[in-house]
Amino acid sequence: MDDLSSEAIRSLLTSLFPSQMVEDLAREREVVIRDRKIDVRMPVWTLVVGFAVGGEARSIAGYRRAYEAATDHSIYPSSFYDRFTEELATLLRDLLDHAVEEVAVPHTLTPVFEQFRDVIAVDATIVRLCRFLSEFKATHENESGLTLYLVHNVTEQSVISDEITDETTHESTLFETGSWLSGRLFLLDRGFFKFRRFALIDENDGFFVSRLKASSNPVVTEELQEWPGRAIPLEGERIYDVVGDLYREHIDVEVEVSFQRRVYNGVKSWDTKRLRVVGVRDEDADDGYRLYITNLPHDEFSPDEISTLYRARWVVELLFRELKSRYSLGEFKTEKTHIVKIQVVAALLTLVVSRAILREFVEYAEEQGDECVFPPERWAATFRSLAQLILREIAAGYGYRRPNLGEILYHEAKQPSPSRLILLEEQSVIERLA
């Protein structure tokens, strides 16, 4: 970015989703069957940027007002509502797939990261929904909820995969194994804890770090670090049976775990694997240690380095926090499944678009020699507060005139049915006389 002008921001965003691409995808997905009064690009941008506004604007009526305020183009509510279809949800998904390949915030790699092809954080979060959304089954009766699953590239600061399922789908089933794991380091939440998964990552030449579950309690086969004096021997012990008696600064041991392989010829077979468990002293932890299980080699990664690596997983936790606290993910005023899907994907697109601008600001600051930082939540709050102005700039780039504020206020504030207003006034009089 050469300057900080409105035109530069507008050019950046419209190049992220080129007009011809949006129009071609809209026709391919039958969002647009023939040329009509509404330019499909602006409803798309209204969802992406308008989602950031939140509150009342999160309703379809709110999106319509945001659209009218940006384009100076009035539209009947029913006409706008009719565009919220399954086909629109598919179009937004296509745009998201395109965007996640384009946007990445520069990240300074620490030397310990450089030997990995990628560092990947994997996590999921639950979003509560209107209880009448039966397609999104919840774990409790008379409720509904969805699971949003993200695979996040820590080194490039970009979402590389996402899934939306109902709440009852366990997050661990969404993690696919295979040759794509090779050379990558995976930082896994305990929701993805599974010995068979760890074995498959290792067998596909990948690496992982996960917090150790107390329920797993593996047996120590070898101590990888010697301790002077009368240190408590750990070989042959289950790690959680003895950890409460230890006072050493670190734990570094090899353990053997058992797990079931996939069914083959109708038979389930058991297998074992040698993995590494490390612990870092932490008085605030339940047992005095933060324990991790990994396949990273002992001679290359110390317990402290593994603990530091795992903290990078917080980047995806912060993404969820940003979506929920700054963009109010989950505050959906609808009982229709496809509209929920539209808004969840719009939320992810909002995140991608805001990151696209942030990337340019980071590069601009570096070029100017400005040693500043852009805290993610401060950036999200700024983007959200100025979202309507951003939408207006995009509309201007498409040739829409600046809206007449007075006409918009008059049109939106007046009662569409005078008879209804009279009835309300009559009811008010009756209540006063009573």
Give a topology summary.
Elements: H1 6-16, H2 19-28, H3 41-50, H4 60-71, H5 77-81, H6 86-100, E1 118-129, E2 144-153, E3 158-166, E4 184-188, H7 195-203, E5 207-211, E6 219-223, H8 239-242, E7 250-260, E8 270-281, E9 289-294, H9 303-311, H10 314-326, H11 337-368, H12 376-385, H13 387-397, H14 405-413, H15 418-433
Parallel strand pairs: 1-4, 4-5
Antiparallel strand pairs: 1-2, 2-3, 5-9, 6-7, 7-8, 8-9
Helix pairs in contact: 1-13, 3-4, 3-11, 3-13, 4-13, 6-11
Family: Belongs to the transposase 11 family.
Pfam family, one: DDE_Tnp_1
GO molecular function: DNA binding; transposase activity
Describe the structure.
With 434 residues, the protein is α+β, with helices and mostly antiparallel strands. It contains 15 helices and nine strands. The protein has helices spanning 6-16, 19-28, 41-50, 60-71, 77-81, 86-100, 195-203, 239-242, 303-311, 314-326, 337-368, 376-385, 387-397, 405-413, 418-433; strands at 118-129, 144-153, 158-166, 184-188, 207-211, 219-223, 250-260, 270-281, 289-294. Strands 3-2-1-4-5-9-8-7-6 form a nine-stranded mixed beta sheet. A hairpin with a 4-residue loop joins strand 2 (144-153) and strand 3 (158-166). The model is unreliable at 104-109 (pLDDT under 50).
